[in-house]
Design a protein that fits this description.
By secondary structure, the chain is of the alpha+beta class. Helices cover about 30% and strands about 30% of the residues. Helix 2 crosses helix 9. The longest helix has 20 residues.
Length: about 450
Amino acid sequence: MDKIVSLCKRRGIIFPSSEIYGGIGSSYDYGHYGVLLKNNVKAQWWRALLQERDDVVALDSAIIQHPRTWEASGHLAGFTDPLVDCRTCKRRYRADKLEDGQCGEKPSKCPGQGPNCDLTESRNFNLMFQTTVGPVQDEGSTVFLRPETAQGIFLNFKHYLQFARKKPPFGIAQVGKSFRNEITPGNFVFRMREFEQMEMEFFVPPREAEQWYEFWKQARYDWYLKLGIREDHLRLRPHDPDELSHYSSGTSDVEYLYPIGWQELEGIANRGNFDLTQHAEFSKQNLEYVDTASGERYLPHVIEPAAGADRATLAFLCDAYDEDQIDGETRTVLRLHPALAPVKAAVLPLVKKDNQPELAREILFDLRERIQVEYDECDAIVRRYRRQDEIGTPWSITVDHQSIEDRTVTVRDRDSLTQERIAISDLAGELERRLRAPWRSPKLGSD
Ligand code: GAP
């Protein structure tokens, strides 16, 4: 993890937030390449749900919703973690994760195990961030930053029956920021207080719930595989009955083998009709679906694949990170799926003269109509290749003296390191063909 954190900082992919003020714990900013990478992750998620299906529609709901939302959803009463304080070092820990914590006293041990540790009784701590709306701070002005994007979808379910003219089974998908006042955030962007979720609520007739639960578990697992995550680093783990949320009759996590061990990447839950029942009761609205043809009426059941955009981005980064030896030097390379790579191709004139920069820029202007490309003419060509390897650019296009004569360029492949000479007129088509081709992580070898 340290190597990934350091590469992300060095190349401006992801770095600690508010650094000029000394930083603010476990808060991160995404720089240029990080934005491009996370955008690609989110775009692939939207693509799988919206473009490749016709039973899912999109939503972008407000972060601050009516406070009754969180009463109905159960978050106000139950979205808590058990918290203990240490009276000696004044630190706070999650009572159920003491083994992951570190005592503030030296020699550093797990909280409770040091000679001077003095832990309080555990108490419940609500993870929702609270604020007020409007100029008067009274009881009625208290609101919460959403701790999940899901509830915004339930609040809009009735609208979608009307204006999207959808009938179950259908899904509503949303991507956006969520906020949780985590007691122990950490492990880079794995657990933060402000993070981005990619969630879909798939509304189904009750009798079809089990079948759709099975479908979405597999579909979401396959999505990560298709984007290049190695199969031996990915698994589906069903929750034990004592792990299940109060609303869930079945949940499975897609887990990734991060450098910190197997951890949740995404949860797929069979939520039954819990949420719609609660919101119907609290809002006094009828949220049933009525089939006009058969007269059948019911509260749909919900299958929810809930993913984290930051955790997914981190998993893709971990899976892609590699080092190899070239000419006796260590090369750091991100072997990202080309569809996720922040930059698809770099255009590099071999020298800064002999009309090579002019031709390289002509190629750049042509390619950027179709894909994310970058131009670089500073430093020796090998150093420029290394810079592109570090951000995972799959192809580097070099303009050399022959290019001026016959309008061909070399295309260097990030993973195989082969260089192919291609006519400039064929370049865009060839790169688009490669981008669409099935892809397998070269870290798996040729077995
Ligand atoms: N609506 C259901 C729900 O929110 P969750 O398992 O609490 O379920 C879904 O969250 C996903 O959101 C997780 O699988 C994870 O990827 C991401 N996530 C949750 N808390 C996070 C945090 N503190 N930092 C980063 N990502 C987080």
